[in-house]
């Protein structure tokens, strides 16, 4: 949002008017419509829809390739929400700290004469952070949808229905001023559920059973 605002400001300052014409190309003459503002709104809607589709695709991959893991994480959050929230906040702090540490290391290496290619580490950190956000957002949508479905049925929720339903409900709530933080909150819960699940399995050698437990195909 900050970067988008700065870019919009720069464009507005540079092309606000055509010299000598008296025509403000930022508005439709006689209508008072700000084309740049309308464009920003359209861009925001397109970006939101694109990100929503991306999380649906990632959620589909998670359900297809790691159904048992998704159910286990959902179970963690549903049964231990406070614990999951704590793990999620700790995970966010750790991720932010790791990114900052990467920046400090890269800056130090450049200062002592390392080639500029080490800046690629920052790109890797950014991509890893983006991937983490997308995956946990998709998980959060599944968990939110699962919670809603559980209010109307006693059986295990269909993960596909939970994914789509959660994405729609969380997306709508995120647009409302009063409850717009529901999206980040659900994402943090999903992150905490995943961290808690891995934490419990750490002593059982979960890394030796990845093919069986973590990536188990399912519908």
Any overview of this molecule?
There is one protein chain. Helix 3 packs across helix 5 (120-150). The chain is mostly helical. A hairpin with a 4-residue loop joins strand 1 and strand 2. A two-stranded antiparallel ribbon has the order 1-2. The chain contains eight helices and two strands; from the N terminus they run H-E-E-H-H-H-H-H-H-H. It starts with a helix and ends in a 5-residue tail after the last helix. The radius of gyration is 22 Å and the shape is globular. The protein has helices at residues 2-14, 35-65, 67-79, 81-111, 120-150, 159-175, 182-201, 210-214; strands at residues 27-28, 33-34. Mean pLDDT is 77; it is low at 1-25 and 206-219.
**N→C terminal distance:** 37 Å
Biggest sheet: strands, sense, closure?
Answer: 2 strands, antiparallel
**Helical amount among residues, as a percent range?**
over 70%
Radius of gyration: 22 Å
**So what's the overall shape?**
globular
Widest beta sheet: strand line-up: 1-2
Mean pLDDT: 77
Question: What would you say about this model in short?
Answer:
Keywords: Membrane, Transmembrane, Transmembrane helix. The chain crosses the membrane at residues 38-63, 84-110, 122-147, 159-176, 182-199. By secondary structure, this protein is mainly α.
Strand and helix layout:
Blueprint: H1 2-14, E1 27-28, E2 33-34, H2 35-65, H3 67-79, H4 81-111, H5 120-150, H6 159-175, H7 182-201, H8 210-214
Antiparallel strand pairs: 1-2
Helix pairs in contact: 2-5, 2-6, 3-4, 3-5, 3-7, 4-5, 4-7, 5-6, 5-7
């Amino acid at each position: 949002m900050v970067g988008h605002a700065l870019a919009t400001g720069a464009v507005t300052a540079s092309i606000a008017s055509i010299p000598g014409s008296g025509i403000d190309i930022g508005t439709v003459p006689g209508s008072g419509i700000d084309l740049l503002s309308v464009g920003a709104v359209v861009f925001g809607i397109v970006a939101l829809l694109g990100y929503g589709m991306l999380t649906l695709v990632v959620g589909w991959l998670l359900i297809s390739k790691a159904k048992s893991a998704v159910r286990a994480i959902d179970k963690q959050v549903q049964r231990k929400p406070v614990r999951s929230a704590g793990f999620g906040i700790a995970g966010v702090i750790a991720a932010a700290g790791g990114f900052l540490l990467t920046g400090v290391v890269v800056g130090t290496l450049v200062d002592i004469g390392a080639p500029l290619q080490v800046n690629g580490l920052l790109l890797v950190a950014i991509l890893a952070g983006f991937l983490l956000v997308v995956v946990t957002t998709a998980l959060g949508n599944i968990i939110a949808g699962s919670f809603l479905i559980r209010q109307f049925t006693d059986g295990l929720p269909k993960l596909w229905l939970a994914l789509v339903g959660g994405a729609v409900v969380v997306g709508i709530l995120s647009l409302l001023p009063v409850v717009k933080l529901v999206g980040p909150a659900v994402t943090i819960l999903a992150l905490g559920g995943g961290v808690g699940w891995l934490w419990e399995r750490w002593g059982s050698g979960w890394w030796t059973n990845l093919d069986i437990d973590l990536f188990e195909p399912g519908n």
